């Protein structure tokens, strides 16, 4: 069976997964559900990375964290995810200086069920591609971006697309927040 990525217009799947939300002893883990996010009435950006304790991944995670307030200002829940366990996530956060102060949950999809349902598992190692999903408050996937395992994504582009989607208008190429939209 071919790996098919859930795409635009699809309903984002329900999930209940362990997430790392802190490095404070006894407060590291939280059971995160998509129902909780959906009930918040907010947009969601979920971004996936292949493996913890690697080289490209922490640069992306740290950049998303730097932009955390930008996502919050756009009424958007930010969630990071990989197929590593919550214990590996917690160890990596404690070990890596750029990850200690993360403001968003690190979802652990150890069963790989969510990554499988999303269609983002790499065929050989069964690790997640660098995938980013923008999901509207109704749970509809509005944007999907997939990157090769070796190439980091552009967080500013994720924010630009989120801004464009939230206008609910026609936005031309290279449109930036505050610029005119198109009239049809």
UniProtKB/TrEMBL annotation:
It catalyses: a hydroperoxide + NADH + H(+) = an alcohol + NAD(+) + H2O. Residues 6-167 form the Thioredoxin domain. It is an enzyme of class 1 (oxidoreductase). The keyword Oxidoreductase applies. Keywords: Antioxidant, Oxidoreductase, Peroxidase, Redox-active center. The keyword Transmembrane does not apply. The active site is at 57 (cysteine sulfenic acid (-soh) intermediate). SUPFAM superfamilies: Thioredoxin-like (SSF52833). InterPro entries: AhpC/TSA, Peroxiredoxin, Peroxiredoxin_AhpC-typ, Thioredoxin-like_sf, Thioredoxin_domain. GO terms for biological process: cell redox homeostasis; cellular response to stress; hydrogen peroxide catabolic process; response to oxidative stress. Its EC number is 1.11.1.26. GO terms for cellular component: cytosol. GO terms for molecular function: NADH-dependent peroxiredoxin activity; thioredoxin peroxidase activity. Homodimer; disulfide-linked, upon oxidation. 5 homodimers assemble to form a ring-like decamer. This is Alkyl hydroperoxide reductase C.
